[in-house]
UniProtKB/TrEMBL annotation:
Keyword NADP: no
Gene: tig_49
The protein's enzyme class: isomerase
Domain PPIase FKBP-type: 2-50
Record-linked Pfam families: FKBP_C, Trigger_C
EC number from the UniProt entry: 5.2.1.8
GO terms (BP aspect): protein folding; protein transport
Entries under InterPro entries matching the protein: PPIase_FKBP_dom, Trig_fac, Trigger_fac_C, Trigger_fac_C_sf, Trigger_fact/SurA_dom_sf
Keywords from the named record: Isomerase, Rotamase
Domain Trigger factor C-terminal: start-end pairs: 76-227
GO MF, one annotated term: peptidyl-prolyl cis-trans isomerase activity
Name of the protein this chain belongs to: Trigger factor
Length: 247
């Protein structure tokens, strides 16, 4: 949706104002920090044809609307409470993610280290495989699409450095994941599901899945420890800015 903040600003600017049936060809350069490393900093050409132009129409918030969103008795107040709870959970998650990003940058800045070439090469290959798998999941045939590990070298260096730095902090400060911390995290993630117990069982059914949750807890422990040792300044942020919807 144009204007929702889900697409790159340069792309939105290029297609804004086009009418149904109109076409446009334009070049666009992806940001250097774009999440898909093989596109980061690259200039590509888009060919866009507008099939249809639609605008959202807000529905009436009534009992029927509440029922359509899963509130069996159509209680609008109950629906509002659920929406508020979900938004509060998402706000907390976004804030934690931003703080974690800042902490990781700080750790890299204050801990300059050299990393083994073999580890970087292995991480580059893994990132390339992940990118290829992501393309395949989007329905693309990757047999003839080159996805070179070298494209991910900078990202791999960063990830390896952070891995080594964090491992040392975990060892030095005893920040290992405790079982109760892992369970709390899994329970929190499960709250957004229709059947929370099903997701909890899914995580605990295989050690590999639980290890993913443990890794998140360890990261959170490191972040909490760093924040406790640092001088911090609180900042007020508008909801739309936090959610990435700022104009």
């Amino acid at each position: 949706m144009i204007g929702a903040g889900s697409m790159l600003k340069d792309f939105e600017a290029a297609v804004t104002g086009l009418a149904a049936g109109e076409s446009k060809t334009f070049d666009m350069t992806f940001p250097e920090d774009y999440h898909a490393a093989h596109l980061a900093g690259k200039t590509v050409q888009f060919e866009v044809t507008v099939k249809k132009v639609e605008a959202p129409k807000l529905p009436e918030v009534d009992a029927d609307f509440a029922k359509a969103l899963g509130v069996a008795d159509g209680d609008v107040a109950k629906l509002r409470d659920e929406v508020k709870t979900n938004l509060s959970r998402e706000v907390k998650r976004r804030i934690q993610a931003k703080v974690k990003e800042q902490v990781m940058e700080a750790l890299l800045t204050v801990t300059p280290i050299e990393v083994p070439k073999a580890l970087v090469e292995a991480e580059s290959r893994q990132l390339a495989e992940n990118a290829k798998r992501d393309l395949e999941m989007r329905g693309m045939q990757t047999k003839n699409i080159p996805v070179e590990p070298a494209w991910f070298a900078d990202q791999a260096v960063r990830r390896v450095k952070l891995g080594l730095i964090m491992a040392e902090q975990v060892k030095a400060q005893e920040l290992h994941a405790k079982p109760e911390q892992v369970r709390t995290l899994v329970d929190e993630m499960a709250q957004s599901y229709e059947d929370p117990s099903e997701l909890v069982r899914w995580y605990y059914a295989q050690p590999e899945r639980l290890a993913q949750a443990e890794a998140v807890v360890i990261e959170d422990n490191v972040v909490s420890w760093v924040v406790s040792q640092a001088q911090t300044t609180e900042k007020s942020v508008e909801f739309d800015e936090l959610m990435g919807n700022a104009a």
